Amino acid sequence: MSKGIIISPDKCTGCRTCELACSFMKHDNFNPKDAAISVLAFDEVGLQVPMTCLQCDDPHCVAVCPVNALEKDENTGVVNHDREKCIGCKMCVSACPFGNMTYSSRLKQVIKCDECGGDPQCVKLCPSGAIVYKELDSSMERRRNIASCFKEAFGEVIR
Amino acid sequence: MKLKIDGIICEGREGETLMEVAKRHGIHIPSLCYRKGFEGLARCRLCLVEVKEGSRRRIVSSCVYPIKENIEVTVTTDEIQRMRKNIIMLLLLKAPNNSYINKLAEEYKVAAPERYMNPLDDENCILCGLCVKACEKMGTNAISFVNRGIYKKVSTPYDDASKDCIGCGACAEVCPTNAILVEDNEGKRKIWNREFNMVKCSLCGSYFATEEAYKLMQEKLNDNEEPICNECRKKIAADKLKESFANIY
Question: Could you give the ipTM of this predicted complex?
């Protein structure tokens, strides 16, 4: 069964180590803008929400890509982005229902989480366990992991 | 199918080009107009390699050369290096002030003869045709080569504002010499002699795509919702996630 990144906002301290880890891993710099994961702060309730690609089952980004640079890997469940194939039309950026794809004009590329090919560095360095990488064995468990009302709110698009 | 590239035994399928096989095996062949996923264009000609088939030697463009069984390929020989230098010299004359071509010329230690150089020439296009191909892949076909000989250039029909162009900017992104100008300014984008209105995010008011490109995206997804930029979409998604956790306490 496929593995995935599971987010628990209740554990997140907002240290943003994940952002730096991602940026350094992928682009050799410490720029949160280049990271495929970002932490959104909700101070009024004291919660921090790390957001990254959810590797949807029916990805909108894949549907709009004109050159098949985005492909869903059926074995790992990851939606992979092929940088060499990408022509930078930015369709995927406006198509993603969760805004988890960004485009960096400085790097001239789309920034998207690929779970580091099975070894996500953000998870490795997260000090509080707010993001974990584990098996998503059954649809029931998935539903519990990614909070259930989140699923209701967005319909079947989420894995 | 087995073949040798620089002494490394490579495996390829029938119909694949030399460039594709070399890329897959991590062998670098210099090129400007090759792009994965595109058919070879054979325009920049930097990807010349020597192919030895039996007792026959020939020089081919690797991005369009279909592989054959048991051929031996050498990526760089003295002869090829000389040819590449000549090609780069010609490119340098075509786009004398382009930083990418100048960098390439420096790398290959090439200088163009001064009497043919026009230091005021602001041409950046080397006519590789990647932009035309990218536009074709987008399904818009707004630009193509026009004119012949020294007047050849990439443009829209009659240099007019094209009604097919969606202003996505993919042509500018794939350009190896950064020759295509995209001007974004307060909700307007200017590209290929046409001015586009940008879509405004209904929440934060930032401009994020041209109206035409956004419409194409919506058509592909059968989506009719209000335009929301990716930052705001992320905020909405995070907010929903927050709500579900905030309710627990």
Answer: 0.82
| Cβ–Cβ below 8 Å for A87 and B134 | yes
Distance, in Å, from the CA atom of A39 to the CA atom of B78, rounded to the nearest integer, reads 54
Assigned domain for A47 exists: yes
pLDDT digits (tens, 9 = 90+) for B186-245: 889 999 999 999 999 999 989 999 999 999 999 988 888 889 999 999 999 888 888 877
Domain with A78, as residue range(s), is: 3-153
Domain interval for residue B142 = 130-238
The closest alpha carbon to B30, from B103, B135, B123, B99, belongs to B103
Nearest to A29 by CA among A92, A98, A99, A104: A104
* pLDDT tens string A10-68: 888 999 999 999 999 999 999 999 999 999 988 888 888 899 998 888 899 999 999 99
Closest CA to B217 of A11, A98, A60, A57: A60
Local structure of A102: helix, strand or coil: strand
Q: Which residues from chain A sit within 8 angstroms of residue B141, using beta carbons?
A: none
Is B242 within 8 Å of A42 when comparing Cβ atoms? yes
Residue type at B185 in one-letter notation:
N
Which two structure tokens, joined as six digits, stand for A138?
């059954």
Domain count, chain A: 1
